[in-house]
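Worked example 4.2. Below are the chains of a multi-component assembly; read each line carefully before continuing.
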Amino acid sequence: MSARSSFDGFITRSLTELSQAAFGLNESKLPPYLQSSPAKEKLEFFVQQAYCPHVITLATREADTFLQCKGFRDLVDFLRPFGDNIDGRLENKIRGEKAFRNLKFSLRFVPLNAVRSPQQIMNDKLARKSFDTSPPSKYANCLPSGNLATLQTVTERFVDYFSENELGEDVDPSSPFYYFFQRLLSGIPVSAHETFAHPVASLLVVTSHSVNPLEDFMQLYKQLNSAAFPHFVSRDLVHCYIYLHDDENSDLQKSVEAFELVRRSFGANCYFLKFSSLKDAVADNKSDIDLQQEVNGTQWKSASELMIEIETGNNAFDEVHLLPLPDILAIKKVVYDMLNESIIPYMQRCVHLWTERLSAYRGSFTSKLLLVSRKYFSRQSAPTDYGHYDPTTSCYFPDKPEAQLRRLADHHFMLRDYKVASEIYESLEKTFSDDKAWCYLASCQEMHAVSMLMQTQLLTQKNRSVYLYPLLEQSMQTYIDRCHMPYFAIRALVTVCSLLSTRPGLSVDDSVRWFSRLFEFNLFSAFGTAFWSTCIATLYSSKDSESESSFGQRKRKTAFWYLVSTSYWLSLNRPRMANLCLQYAYEVYETSHWDELRVTIKNLKDQLEHSLE
Amino acid sequence: MASYLAIIGTKDNPVYELEIIPIKEMNEDILKSHLHQFVAHASLDLIEQGQWTSNSLYLRSIDQFHDTMISAFLTPSNIKFILLHKTKNDDGIKLFFQELHELYIKMLMNPFYEPNQPIHSQAFDLRVRTLAKRQL
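Applying the procedure described above to all two chains together yields the following structure tokens:
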């Protein structure tokens, strides 16, 4: 019957189920298509691994030489990949009982001269240019991000590399977006207004080749203490020591004795790392191939460092080293122990200490009101508790309570305590605004927004528009207008949009609306138009789910934006990338009942195939 | 003021389409018409979502693509009226949709017309054009 056929389109679901889904109550009671998705976990993982403790690593010259023989640039280069993905154990006190949470952690090993402000790096570069002839790659691993032009070049190269090398049926065109997001978050510059790049720990490494390991450790320690950190970086660090035993050239017994001596002098944070030798391998009758395993280069190289690698002709995107498997396991164990026995406990102790010490400053509103009223009504006793901002150097010195509070908030963030972190950021915003410390204010607003989104509780539409969007807006404006730091503004925007798009609920449209601002900024010019279209398609595609219901899905939107980006990529003369984007759009449109759409997409596909030949 | 109207059936199939171009802008490139169709198709996602949260048939402005706004109206038989327009005109568009709905109901009452099929009737076309000129 013709009348009945028109009712085919009615979706038969009960209204109660949908009303719950639409208005979102408790996340655990949500239907599966609204819970955590792989895209959400991936993005949260990136944010967690980006904002992680930094460890300054110093090694003796023998250690560096030893590792150069193994094919690495120096010890830091060797250690870096092992800091990317470590299992961490966080203690949780639930109703008085201790429980452990197993989480994925990350450590960023940086060389000593990475702890410099971008201004210092610039000055050093200019000073070096005149007399130093060593290749730029020697200094590459300490260059932070922050340069948008470099970021653009690296992203363009990645898009070319990706589209040339990825062949096959189900290539995911969302990879460039994730790559860009990682690059944006990697290489956090050492700045006054955020302390994530400030070192939390130091690592001194001595090998068994050295004659007097204690003496070498003291030398490295002296080197660390006399290094010229920027004045806003605190020197409170936990010191870890690694004794590297080379089984091929040294005697194990002697090494163990030397290590015992070291441990007796330095205390708890000493670790013994044994590199196996070929003798063991031959003795066990194993072939070379069984024993070796591939180790990829670290994923968190900054854009500037990648730029140098591209310029010197190295393979920037696919670095692989071969190491014996026992060595890999040994290093992973040492890094795991270092994280869980030295670094995390140290951070937790710091957090405890600072919380106690600074509880007065984080006091209730009434105490603050009293202080302020005293300030206004009695000229003599102006409070010395606030207003430590130094306008000449535009920073708070590390011993001042505001700087310590910021450090406390960042530590909470790194230890996954997002609720407390966002509370501290919120309380700091008023202080910074009063002191007119604009960079600090913008940074606090940015991190407040990010920590709001990293929490697992649901953010309703009302909360988003009342709290989150103004934070993002103000943060971006302050970064751009008052601090002249567009890199941080872009970082804030992209991070918030990405995290927002994967939230359960209907926030992806808002996320795309904010993301479209990048078109207005005209960032990355023509390449940018194509790239942002692909990014928007990626944001929409994160809503794809296998479930049958189509509520909350954005298949048509994703297909549309992939189509738009196809045409932009074609106009930029990148047919391979265009082809990758077209595949998704083609799947959706070729089965559509809309004739013209089907015909257009078919023509486009033919045109592309023609241009690829 | 240029607009594009599409009546879309229950299977994403176009039942009726109309490009409303004022005489002044007639010389401009109409190559963008394909883009209009894709934009309308993409906004179907938002209509399908909005229909469960809104009580009324007129869904107002549900989407935006650069400078083009998209308004939608949903009939009880799940037929979508989508209008792409550049200027904001909530009242005019609401009246337009309501009268379009009445025209559509009259179309449905024709026993020779099956729902979800394309509308080829010239009378319908003429009436819609007149309505558009009046309201938009």
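Take a moment to check your reading of the output against the notes. The two ends of chain B are 8 Å apart (CA to CA). Chain B touches chain A at residues 9-14, 34, 37-39, 41-42, 44-46, 48-49, 52-53, 63-64, 66, 77-79, 114-116 (CB under 8 Å).
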